[in-house]
Design goal:
Layout: H1 2-16, H2 24-37, H3 41-48, H4 64-78, H5 84-96, H6 99-111, H7 118-129, H8 133-144, H9 149-165, H10 169-186, H11 200-210, H12 214-227, H13 231-242, H14 248-258
Helix pairs in contact: 2-4, 4-5, 5-6, 6-7, 7-8, 7-9, 8-9, 9-10, 10-11, 11-12, 11-14
Length: about 260
């Protein structure tokens, strides 16, 4: 009887201490899962105390982005060839506005996923946000060299974003319209599904307004709303409406600054 109880007691003790015996793959998945749990300040507080099977966060980590990176880096140590941790780390830096850091990790993800244009889309976006137009356009040409409809769609859209930011609205409009024409047939995702170009109609609305055509701008804006019905966007637009009446240009500018600019 005693011989049967000792292993059982040991098993219970080990279980109570967390995942002691696990393979590298199991530990990798656990750290990735813990990174997904870091969404709010409350979740960070729980993770500092060792929530579920997650390793306790160091006390100096205080934000969800820092917490996600902590677990993602632990996961990446276990699977260095995986593009998933570095691209998730890049996204966390993007959220913070740390574009140079994000660029570094998008590039690391690119080296580990040669068939997926998503990391390159991230790199081009970071170059654009950093004001490095030449490098952004150089990478769009790399995508277009694939010779596929999807490659041309992605390149035209991202080139148009660069032209738009630089105030070259005619070139931007041509690129957005060509990309939109392809997307209507082949879909709005830019590569593997991480990024989309569903905001194209919004930029065409802004360009039309810049050119003095309020009616065309309104038509593009309505098309944008039809393609984008995320609850967060609806809530943001409702909040803007609650701020009182405003003209068309001011309304669009606030949506661009408060919503569009923070997303691909």
């Amino acid at each position: 009887m005693t011989k049967r109880l000792i292993p059982l007691a040991l098993y219970v003790a080990l279980i109570s201490c967390g995942p002691v015996f696990e393979s590298d793959e199991e530990a990798y998945r656990r750290h990735m899962h813990c990174a997904d749990r870091a969404t709010t300040e409350e979740s960070v507080d729980k993770l500092q105390r060792g929530f579920a099977f997650c390793d306790p966060l160091p006390l100096h980590i205080s934000t969800p982005s820092e917490a996600r990176r902590h677990y993602l880096e632990k996961a990446w140590e276990l699977k260095k060839d995986s593009p998933d941790p570095p691209i998730a780390i890049a996204l966390s830096y993007w959220e913070e506005g740390a574009y140079s850091n994000a660029l570094e990790f998008f590039d690391a993800a690119r080296a580990r996923s040669p068939g997926d244009p998503s990391p390159i889309v991230g790199m081009i976006t970071m170059h654009r946000l950093l004001g490095d137009e030449e490098l952004a356009l150089t990478w769009t040409k790399r995508i277009e060299e694939e010779g596929t409809d999807d490659g041309r769609k992605i390149a035209r859209y991202l080139e148009a974003r660069v032209h738009y930011d630089a105030g070259r609205y005619e070139e931007a409009r041509e690129g957005f319209e060509e990309a939109l024409d392809i997307a209507e047939k082949r879909g709005f995702f830019l590569g593997g599904g991480m990024f989309t170009m569903k905001n194209t109609e919004f930029f065409l609305a802004q360009i039309a307004l810049e050119e003095g055509d309020a009616v065309e701008a309104d038509a593009h804006f309505r098309a944008y709303i039809e393609k984008n019905s995320e609850p967060e966007l609806v809530s943001y637009m409702n909040w803007l409406a609650d701020q009182g009446p405003q003209d068309q240009a001011s309304y669009y500018d606030q949506i661009e600054a408060g919503w569009i600019r923070t997303r691909q």
